[in-house]
Specification:
The protein is α+β, with helices and mostly antiparallel strands and 141 residues long. It has one domain. It is 57% helix and 16% strand. The protein has five helices and three strands, in the order αβααβααβ. It has a three-stranded antiparallel sheet with strand order 1-3-2, covered by helices on one side. The termini are close together.
Length: 141
């Protein structure tokens, strides 16, 4: 953030996109669990192609830090996506591919991972999924 401020032209604007972790519900938490499980499989296989992990950021603290650095006129916009099904499909396809690899490469762990996958998939079918809204923080030098 300091480097962004340093290189930004006078009165230039910085845009920071983060997930709005202030908003949650059972459907959002369901998607979060699914994403974490997908990342766990990537870690098990020691391949670095995992999903982005959710990092919980306190938006209020982030704004304070931006002010401390020198940014001003800090405000936020919240956008909601309707792409849950496409996003879920990409995660689900990655999980299936990695479960197949684990079945071949780490067979003794496959049954446990597969059981967890079936449990999570059951929750998705019962509860549904929802992506967290994205917060775009706009600040000016």
């Amino acid at each position: 953030m300091k480097e962004a401020y340093r290189v930004l032209k006078k009165e230039g604007k910085a845009y920071i996109n983060i997930l709005d972790t202030r908003v949650t519900n059972e459907r959002i938490e369901n998607m979060d669990y699914f994403r974490r499980f997908a990342d766990e499989l990537y870690d098990e296989l020691k391949i670095g192609e995992g999903m982005c992990e959710i990092k919980y950021v306190d938006i209020g603290q982030l704004k304070v830090k931006l002010l401390e650095i020198g940014f001003k006129d800090i405000h936020e916009q919240i956008s909601k996506t309707t792409e849950e099904d496409k996003y879920f499909g990409r995660i689900d396809n990655g999980i299936k591919a990695n479960l197949s690899r684990i079945n071949k490469e780490v067979a003794e762990k496959y049954m446990g991972y597969n059981a967890r996958y079936e449990d999570l998939l059951g929750k998705v079918k019962r509860i549904g999924i929802e992506l967290r809204p994205t917060v775009e923080i706009i600040c000016q030098k």
